[in-house]
Amino acid sequence: MKKVCLMLAAALCLAAAGCHPEEKPGQEVPGPDPVEKPDDEGDKPDTPVPDGMNVEGKVVDSDGKGIEGVVVTDGQQCTLTLADGSFRMKVDEATAKFIYISTPSGYMPAVYGGRPVFYRSLASQSKKNGVYTVDTFTLTPVAHPDRATVIFTADPQPRASSAGFDKIGYHSLDCCEDLYLDLKETRAAMPADRRVLGICLGDIVHENMSLYTNYIAGLKTLGYPTYNVLGNHDNNPSAADDEAAAADFESYFGPRNYSFNVGNIHFVVLDNLIMKDKSGRLTGYDQGLTDRIWEWLQADLSFVPKTATVATCSHSPMFKTQNGERSARHKNDYANLLTGYARVHAWAGHTHATHNFVYPEAHMYGGLEVHTLARSTGELWTNEYLSSGTPRGYTIAEIVDGEFASWRFHPVKYQRGAFIGPAAPSYELRDWDYDDAGVARMKAGGGVLDESYQMHLYAPVGTYGDSKVYANIFLWDSKWSTPVFTLDGGSSVQMVPVESASRYDFADTAFKTFYKTYNQTLKDYSGYDATTTGNPNTLFSTPVEALSGAGTVSVTDRFGKVYTARISW
Q1: Exposed e or buried b for every residue in 94-129, given b needs 16+ CB within 10 A?
Q2: Domains in the chain, start-ordered, CATH in brackets?
Q3: What number is the average pLDDT over the span 119-127?
Q4: What is the pLDDT of residue 463?
Q5: Please, where are the H alpha helices in 170-211?
Q6: 451 phi and psi, to 5 degrees?
Q7: How sure is the predictor about 465, in pLDDT bands with cuts at 50, 70 and 90?
Q8: Are 155 and 78 in contact (CB under 8 A)?
Q9: How many CB atoms are located within 10 Å of the residue 92 CB?
């Protein structure tokens, strides 16, 4: 029998939080309901569990057979299930909120309303003779354990349509509905037997706890389960402290620090923003991990072989951002721990700007890769079609043979909501217009906006021209080729990265300048800056001499796929 391995001290979190009654997780995959009591509960002996343990439970497959070696945690310490799938733990009843599992590769937990249910609220479990019996975890085997599609979104961040900062351009809730429809259609276009998972990288709402139900309604329509990350705006600003602020999120989605496995990839979801008071509201924050979360991360990763790929999923970037290296609590600790693994991918949102970066091998974090997504619903406040130069959209990653094999940008093609503000920009630099059904159709050719759109080109004339052709290549990193511009009837030349710290995306700046000039709300708001748009490291340029002309930009992504786009002036 495999020896149970208990690690670290008891949890330091607050009392358990269950699901909202109207949204109680049930079951959408084969197997017993996850909140049902075990059939043999009535036969439980009247003696305490040996060895001072006060929590017991079991992990089984859909045939009821125990699964050995599954990691079980209370949010700080971890243990493994025995040969029959059983586990026992000693937890601090006053502070432990959840008992939950790290779903092993090859299995899926129950899914309710588009949400994976890999946890049990300790407060809702039956207790007899001082021992909690945790409702059995039933896992369903997946057909192709080393093959999956993962859809990453970030910062949907809706506000109530009556909010002052949601009546400037487009309603954020409308943009969220467009996002959900696009995600649903994207999944529907994939093979029916394809395993698809979603990961939303936080800021699910914007400090309005009542809007969680809108988000959950959207998840139910997608056709695949979505794992969720706690963002700073997902915390209740009226709460007393960081721990209490997460209660609403936890009541819908369970623990905010957890893990699961797909093939050889160990996904770790982390809450890396520590909330604090700011002018009487809990909206300020420090970057990094609390001591308790850092202890849990060590315990969780202790069961992961060093040959594995680790994919961290946090709201705020844990490492480098487009503006420099991130400073954060326990950064040196978690960086040293993570870089001991074969491959590390750090996924995040929060900055509202795309940033992909590969640390050089000579760097202390050599080989670690950063993937930061722009806001999936567009620019904050106006909810316009760009977020720091990246269109509304999301990243789709393919897992093949148990590893990340590719990823690509997918733009959202819908804008069905009406313009709300007093006046709209001209959108001269936008590459498409929306038809009567709210579908984006390219100005060149009339085709529907799709995944072939991986860059935005700017002509060397006009308000933003300086005798150069510019290309903003949304997901570019150092493993892509350098883009090449070919002048019609002329030569080809490699484009040069725009290095200046003041670099910006022209279309994004154009509509920001308009709103800053003509919308009174933003004109008087110092937090809205029309002159900078995220300092994108994805911008390239090359000079041209002709007063008029046309040409093509081509670039090869790190997976060998070639993208081309044309520009004329």
Answers
A1: ebbbbbbbbbbbbbbbbbbbbbbbbbbbbebbeeee
A2: 21-140 (2.60.40.1120), 422-569 (no CATH)
A3: 97
A4: 56
A5: 172-188
A6: -70, -5
A7: low
A8: no
A9: 15
